Amino acid sequence: MTITPDSTTPPGHGTDNPTVASSSPSADEFAERFLDSTLATAETMSVYLGERLGWYRCLVDHGPLTADDLASRTATDARYAREWLEMQAAFGILDADLSSNSTTFGISPGVAEVLTDTSSRSYLGALPRMFAASFGRLSELLDAYRTGGGVSWDQLGADARECQAALNKPWFDADLAPALAAIDHIHQRLSRPGAKIADIGFGAGHSTIALAHAYPEATFVGLDVDAASVQMARDNAEAEGLGDRVQFHLAGGEEAVAHGPFDAAFAFECLHDMPRPVEVLAATRQALAPGAPMIVMDEAVSDEFSGPADELDKLMYGFSLFVCLPDSMSSPPSVATGTVMRPATLRSYAEQAGFRSVEVLPIEDFSFFRFYELRTG
């Protein structure tokens, strides 16, 4: 299965058991596989260079271009540009035209959409930023692995927060409100005049903003512990003209009671990062109005560990090793969930927090995610 945001099938729903066909590779087989992985790493980080330096965007807007033209238009060095362009063509990302004395390089529409169209559900151009953020902290990660410490979201910096925001934004913008509107009882709650909605761990605020556009009679309160994210979300809300109905606070989910009561609460792709998720869920439950639900969106990983896994689980283990688990463990005491939060783990957290039941909502084909409804009654 090839992992792309609009084609991922949530694991645990298929019929194949990956352990049945597994076998130990020979030395030659594993060496070949590991070389492929090394090439993929080089490709991924080359995309980081092209995305951050504006080279892909320049090729979309002005290409095909020679190395000198690309360097001139982007205020970068021509020798580095030529090496990068040739490498991109060698990997089949860019097209090279060798018919003239000066080789030109172009980008095809499909590649351009994935790497530069930030409104497309297929957009992945920012994805390497998350690994770049982590790789820049490898010495701290090694120390954390030895001592049981961590590397915080704040330490990972702008690359990490901008990556997560950019990858989720097209899904929140286009699909979040319609997905929730299809769940009648949730839609009715969000549509109530004067409804007050919480967004716990809002990041750049794109989830909150999407819901605020869809439900104009509601007000929204966001809580997040990352100061830079709070400012980014406030700027985004002001740019959308929603400053009067959307408030973003620098506060943890444990402080939800002080801002309630809420007619509904959401936690989008953040619960697995929290060092103390039970405390956050318990505080949110106490902040909910009678009968109000909490919706948790988190990774749609398989139901249980079974050894060899599909590509989605593998990707989430990658994020867990380098980003989410170290972030969670940077704030002790931590339950150290990690990105691969199984449904049973979430159910256990919800039960400890005092919720009566957890149901998986019938929202499918929503990027990498699964939606849970936590109920108080």
Automatic annotation (TrEMBL):
Region Disordered, residue ranges: 1-26
Alphabetically ordered keywords of this record: Methyltransferase, Transferase
Domain Methyltransferase: 193-305
Gene Ontology terms: biological process: methylation
Keyword Metal-binding: no
Coiled coil: none
Domain S-adenosylmethionine-dependent methyltransferase Rv2258c-like winged HTH: 44-116
GO MF annotations, alphabetized: methyltransferase activity
One Pfam family from the record: Methyltransf_31
Entry-linked CDD domains: AdoMet_MTases
Classification via InterPro entries: Methyltranfer_dom, SAM-binding_MTase, SAM-dependent_MTases_sf, WH-like_DNA-bd_sf, WH_DNA-bd_sf, WHD_Rv2258c
Protein known as: SAM-dependent methyltransferase
Lineage: Bacteria, Bacillati, Actinomycetota, Actinomycetes, Mycobacteriales
